[in-house]
Amino acid sequence: MTDLFEPIDATDARLALGATGLLGEFNTAGVLTSADVHVAAALGRLGRESDERVLLAVALAVRAVRGGSVCVDLATVADPPDLPWPETAAWTRVVAASPLVAAGLVRWDHDLLYLDRYHEQETQVVDDLLSRAASSPDHDPDLMRASLERVVAAMKAAAVARGLPEPSYGEQVAACLAAAGQWTTVLTGGPGTGKTTAVASLLVGLLDQHPGGLRIALAAPTGKAAARLQQAVHQEAEAFEEGDRARLAGVTASTLHRLLRPDPGNSTRFRHHRGNRLPHDVVVVDESSMVSLTQMARLLEAVRPDARLVLVGDPHQLSSVEAGAVLSDVVRGFEGRADSPVAALESTHRFGPDIRALAEALRTGDADTALAVLAARHEAVEWVDEPDPASRIRTTALDAALAVRDAAERGDVAGALAALDRHRLLCAHRDGPFGVRHWNRRIEHWLTAETGDPLFERAYVGRPLLVTANDHQLGVYNGDSGVVVLTPTGPRAVIAASEGPRDLAPSRLGDVETMHAMTIHKSQGSQADVVTVLLPDEDSRLLSRELFYTAVTRARSQVRVVGSEAAIRAAIGRRAQRASGLARRLATAGSPTEEGVPPSRA
Ligand SMILES: Nc1ncnc2c1ncn2[C@@H]1O[C@H](COP(=O)(O)OP(=O)(O)OP(=O)(O)O)[C@@H](O)[C@H]1O
């Protein structure tokens, strides 16, 4: 869903000067921005199209990408309804017959309108997935079974030694056996369903298959998620036999961006591509729900056709910040297909029963059960439904901020970074009374009142940091977190990068924000012991089931939901819809032919 805007006055920069007719009307109503209008008008001039219904459709396709969609579906786009939307049948007819479509400036396909670039990426992703599914790697299933038996026996023994009941790894073994026999595997599951455990077990099994060695790459869309993946794989391997543990010890993770090697001269291209593939034999990408269509296209063209690709993620989470909802589209698109690469893990092993019950109710859209879990006053799930929740938020947020500050004052880098993950205040919005900016300021005021530290200091000791842009030179990436720590040479910004902490002069960091509070979108791929989810009013257009589910599942041991029953119901009742043709394209593509080339590519 794309936000509407309300023009402030006639000089508002979002209003397109001179826009008339339908484009002008939709611009004034806050549906289209001036950029949408200008791109549509420019394409119209280029392709000699003057039908304002077509130009409106093109402007909506531009807007769609801004809102995370890959294309626009003219049959469902009419929101808000009180605008002069063209009648659907006639509209689709004029768009399909437009000279813009004939010239390839925009694409009309599967009754959806695309900007050319996204159409190309979507068809490429479908073609690459299908051609990878059309053949399978040679492997020895008996050896794979034996490897997994060894790993499972070691993990069971480790659990029993810790006084835990003997676990069962049936789902994970089945997923690994399937993954051994296919070039692409999509390993799905909610938080704590044992995805990382399965990945570590799979890697051991694949190493047994290739005694000569395997080049393995672990990657994730953000630095934080990459660091977590690497740490989690090694942690899970602790339970393995010494030889297996040693073989995984050198496996490291990086951001997806770094893996593909950015091309300094071209911000949308990488050094690894179809003509210069990645050298790795196995590529594992965690948090795949955050991978945009563009990134997925780049990844699929860079992975060798004879390398295994394992996409790991939770399709019920929010999608990527940029356009696309690739993971959930791929899962839906392969549903029922014989060549489906999806292996799903269903049982949760991490949460206590209360967070699990809440997450499950959110995942399935069951508002009554979610409210019942929230109202039951469990220790692990708390509900704050008060007009001014500040006093309830203050204690937890301030304690966590003080713990970070105390460790930072002592120069204890590891302690300060660890304290960052004790509590996270998550907001849907950036601005306004429910937004990140407001709550960051508020927590800083509380901190100042408690410590007497000056408020105006930008790099105050204990300031939690969130990196908001990739900086290859500094080796810090969008989504990395860190903290300002006192050192003998003064305050230093220490960022938890995927290769370990990076120590920088605070002034060198350009794109950083304070992270006492953060948006739910930015929290993807990270976790905290205690999570406070601050829901906005029920009429917020950002509220969605995926947003709420993503926020709740960031919590390791306790979650507190701040919001009214109406806001909770509104969030659960609304889906974060993203228009894309990926699922439909996969579902309707022919099955692989015997030669291994799917008909859509032939
Ligand atoms: N089959 C199992 N039985 C019991 N415990 C398990 C099983 N599989 C994994 N675990 C344990 O459950 C916890 C979560 O597992 P893991 O980290 O592999 O899940 P995940 O799906 O990768 O989680 P997330 O996506 O939230 O990071 C770990 O402590 C792990 O050791």
Please explain how this structure is put together:
By secondary structure, the chain is of the alpha/beta class. Helices cover 42% and strands 16% of the residues. The protein has 23 helices and 21 strands. A 6-stranded parallel β-sheet has the order 6-5-9-10-4-11, with helices on both faces. Strands 12-21-20-13-19 form a 5-stranded parallel β-sheet, sandwiched between helices. The chain has a 5-stranded antiparallel β-sheet with strand order 17-16-15-14-18. Strand 20, helix 21 (545-552) and strand 21 (555-562) form a beta-alpha-beta unit. Helix 14 (326-334) runs parallel beside helix 23 (582-588). The chain is globular and about 75 Å long. The relative contact order is 0.11. The model is unreliable at 593-602 (pLDDT under 50). The structure holds adenosine-5'-triphosphate. The site of adenosine-5'-triphosphate has 16 residues, from helix 9 and helix 10. Residues 29-98 form the RecBCD enzyme subunit RecD N-terminal domain.
Summarize the SSE layout with pairings.
Elements: H1 21-28, H2 34-46, H3 52-66, E1 71-72, H4 88-96, H5 99-102, E2 106-109, E3 112-115, H6 116-133, H7 141-161, H8 170-180, E4 184-188, H9 195-209, E5 216-220, H10 223-237, H11 242-249, E6 253-255, H12 256-260, E7 262-263, E8 266-270, E9 282-285, H13 293-302, E10 308-313, H14 326-334, E11 342-344, H15 353-363, H16 367-375, E12 381-384, H17 390-409, H18 413-420, E13 423-427, H19 436-451, E14 464-467, E15 481-487, E16 490-497, E17 500-504, E18 512-514, E19 517-519, H20 520-523, E20 528-534, H21 545-552, E21 555-562, H22 565-573, H23 582-588
Parallel strand pairs: 4-10, 4-11, 5-6, 5-9, 9-10, 12-21, 13-19, 13-20, 20-21
Antiparallel strand pairs: 1-3, 2-3, 7-8, 14-15, 14-18, 15-16, 16-17
Helix pairs in contact: 1-3, 2-3, 6-13, 7-8, 7-9, 8-9, 9-10, 14-23, 15-16, 15-21, 17-18, 21-22
The structure holds adenosine-5'-triphosphate (ATP).
